[in-house]
Records
---
Amino acid sequence: MLMQTAAQDRQKGDELVTLAGAGIRRNGRWLVRGVDLSIHRGEIVTLIGPNGAGKSTTAKMAIGVLRADEGKVDRKASLTIGYVPQKLAIDWTMPLSVRRLMRLTAKLDDASLMAALTDVGIPHLVDAEVRHLSGGEFQRALLARAIARNPDLLVLDEPVQGVDFAGESALYELIRTIRNKTGCGILLISHDLHMVMADTDTVICLNGHVCCRGTPEAVSRSDDYRRLFGNVGAGLAVYSHRHDHTHLPDGRVQHKDGSVTDHCHPDDGHHHEHAGHGHEHHDDDHSHEHQHGDHTHAGGKGHHHA
Amino acid sequence: MNISMAITRMPAARGIIMLDDFFFRALLAGIGLALTTGPLGCFVVWRRMAYFGDTIAHSALLGVALSLLLDINLLVSVFGVAVVVSLLLLVLQKRQALSADALLGILSHSTLAIGLVMVAFMSWVRIDLIAFLFGDILAVTPADIALIWGGGLFVLAALVVLWRPLIASTVSADIAEAEGLKPERARLLFMLLMALVIAIAMKIVGIMLITALLIIPAATARRFSSAPEGMAVLSSLIGVIAVVGGLFGSLTYDTPSGPSIVVAALILFILSLLPGRAKNLADGGTTSGGRS
């Protein structure tokens, strides 16, 4: 019972960020739509999905870099955010050492600065110029900068890009340690499901909308995940869920029955299985399979999602 | 005698009588301006806003024309037009119908052309266009000097206050936004500061040469800097050297003062490219003192 109460507390009290039906529209096209997610204190949420699925857009919406065009985004008052963006192009005309980068958005004493750089394994680069760093070193420097802020919410957009395999495990270990030590919430974007498995509390699979979600264990027992795991390294094939629809290059959606609609919003009648048929299940086994099984929508436009 | 004297709009009688006096005033004005354009110019270079600076400068001629037409203060008019053009640019960029540089090209040349056409229509006023286009630093009055130093100190103070958000949003607007530094506001205020400096600087180096004073000292300082703060201070100093060198060159060789200053800045820039004199950038711990 105590356990349950604790779990409920986390459910109710400690939301750092909550998105409800949130979406971003650009040039008449929904980049991502109908996103429900919340990140609690001490929770690691991982977003996965193919390129262009709206992972970065969703993260930016959660931290207020982008304003949601529909739905609601609630952030806890005076939330300290540490953000590692996916891409960062610094004009070489700006002289910038790692030390200066660490103090980009807030003051920081030398001891904390060195401690954060030591945590990510690059204390020796403290006076190096940022533009001379390798991709992996730069990524570590950005991570160090974000964690040195002691954030309530750490948002990491593909934090291990350019980092070699050994370094990758070490960085994930570090992220877990940070969570355990500081109790911050972490929103992680990855297209590498197997590496974040052990530490992630919730995996959310995006493809213009929330395709499926659950604990890593739950997802890993699903057919989808087996396919993912079996295909690691095969690029986009990693994300070959049995989708009931295809996202066309022009942003429209082709459904299994051949019909084409402008988007795949959960409420548009094509995707009742996303919104309704529980992706909230975290413990039980049978419901994790992200199946877009044979069923006819009673209320929708009558399409078959075979 | 100096050629610039010939194109002086309002011959300052005292200045001609006391050569030392007008030259000293020119030095004072130029140094004040260079101190201001140094740090501002660094942001222009870092944020790739050179063309934006040019556009605002060109729009100043429209400001001049409006000032004459409506009989309002020149500085207010030029600043007003610069602000309107900046805001127009922000709005047009949001709509994304055209690329930023095409928009800048349109605004830049059309404001300049409208200004010239308006001036031509106003047959009742006689203005020295050359002085507005290429500056007339030898004609500055004590009031101008007060304005340059007062305005300059204001701009520098504003930059100090805005420093962290400006640097952070230059590195990454997303990080700055996520971590609560309001990069959009910083960008808008920076544009206003640019407009103010260009309004002030127009009289000194002229519409066509203002951007040079923003960019060349900053570009020269780059090689010798290992922190943004150091680069800002250094480009101020380099600008001061260019002003002093340019003015003395103008006096010695009887050349127009504004272009002479730009030529002096260019010579410093070329010297900075010579190999072997820059300190090693990789071991840059020494000049990161400006951090807080």
---
Amino acid sequence: MNKKHFLLIAAFIFIPALPFAQGVSAEPVIDSEISEMYLSVEAAKSKKEKRNLTLLLAEKLTSAGQYEEAENLYKGLLAGKPSKKQSFEYYLKLGDTAFLSKNYTLSLDYYEKARSLYKKNAEVNLKIGDVLLKCNLYNLAEKSFTEALSHDEDSYYAKKRLGDIYFEMEMYSKAVEYYGQIENAVNDKQLTVNMAVCYRNLSETDKALDIAKAYLQMTPDAEMFILSGMLNCDKKRYDSAEKDFLKSIEINGQNFMPYIYLAGIYFSADKYELAKRYIDKAYALNSSYAATDLLNAEISYKLGRIYEARRYAHNAFIKAKSPFIKERVKKSSGFFNQ
Amino acid sequence: MILTDALKKIIVLSLIVFCAAQTLSAAVSVFDFDEEEFAVNSLWHRVLELPKEKRPKVALVLGGGGARGFSHIGVFKILQEEEIPVDLVIGASIGSIAGAFYCAGIPMSKVEELAKDITLQSVSNLNPVSMLSMLFSEKLLSNEEIETFLDENIGGLRFDELKVPLVCVATDLNTGERILLREGSVAFAARASATLPGFFKPVEYRQRYLVDGGLSENVPVNIAKLFDPDIIIAVAVSADISKNSTDNVFETLMQSIYIQGKALDAENLMLADVVIRPDVGGIKTVDMGSAYDTIDKGAFAAKKAAKQIKMAIINKTLERHLIE
């Protein structure tokens, strides 16, 4: 397993967290509810009541994905000579709305206006950082999160995001420095995976394993067992890796990955019958990879089933995508056909 | 702060790139199986079990670059960690010094400690008196201390006593020939290979005056070819000429050497199977204080290249050795 693989695992958990700025989310709302709210705003008796109802309505519209209408309402509130604090709030809301409508430039513009009102506010710096991160502007995002952390040194979100930024920039020492500051990081699957990736890339696989183990002690998780198994393979602790993969199968028997890894371990240990059993199971769950066919061909050859070996090698040839696998398949086929 | 137009443009451009990247990554499913990685790992396991004569011969070429060459230590650390075999080392300049330590079997943790304490003064007779002497009587500095330092730390070994064969490349100052040093004292050869011309006195060797191997072959892949290895891994630690300072005479002279050697380096690197390029181009040749960071950069680059090296070795291994 290499960094790329780890990154894929990390991306799986990391990416879903990115699409929304901190505290911003969208959910479907019934149109009639919105119509009623418009009527309530119209019927409001006082300025204060109208403002509060408008805010509620704008939030509903945002939740319903009607960003333009929400934006107009916030702009209307801004035009009504609000206080500095209120203006700050409206600019933040406008920024959130623009963020959700994926207009990141506009979103950043509004957040910057909010920040110009309260420079030392941690929340606005976090939001700006999120937009910049969304735009892959890591260096600028880093500055914003660092700024946020300077105003709120306990900010879980700022530490996590700084860790994520350094992780993405492959600055693993700095990433673990920030991840390590997060309290109860061991409860968080995303953090656990990211930290394991960092330690593995820093040639500290044992630390990566410790983190995975700590997580697994609290939460038995099929994917985390796969990760632990891969790390044990890195350290050539095949007995431990075998146990991890078997536990992963116990929890979720439908993922083909632990089966193929087990087949590889048994093949290396010259346990060809056992390897065949697991590679066949992996194949039954997912037959799209050339590597599965290639290993199956080699196992079949070892079991003296030469025609089967040729057939799997042929299948691998059809499925092979990467130049390395193609080269391997070509050479194996040549060998089996001798 | 209100957004500038320039920043807005950057964001728009980033979004275009980001969206393209998202489209690409969408094809990769969650917790995807990296079949190439899996294949490499399982085959690598078999390569490691092969006796030496059944696996390809690997030559490691270590380029010159002064303090940037500390990254060779990081490269060695990773090669050892990943159990990548090295059957021959060819070094130029600092590459010869790093190679001498590795080939002598000195643990890289010890070499790392030595590197962190090293200064220009500790490997030459650089001091105010020698500098004045250099300026007013054009007397060059001596790098004899490098030889003493190496001899002390590798136990005065000769080439035939090394655990891994080593070739140190030097340059004949009078003819421009590449001189391959592979017999006698290792420390002497490594010193000759790392004798910066115009700064250090040339080293006398069999009626020749030898200077830095980097002058004629800074990344001597050409030399490695002479020994007919199956795989050549080259480590390039050349200066990034766009980042190099030309503020003084020394730096300007160094820049001239880099410019002249750039084309040859590129030609040489084309001949290597795998090139490891630590991100050290911006580090000055004499910046001994950057050892810690430079070693890490070497390790990082080697870690990134490890899979490619393994693939190259697997591909050069006979199929019957891998399967039977």
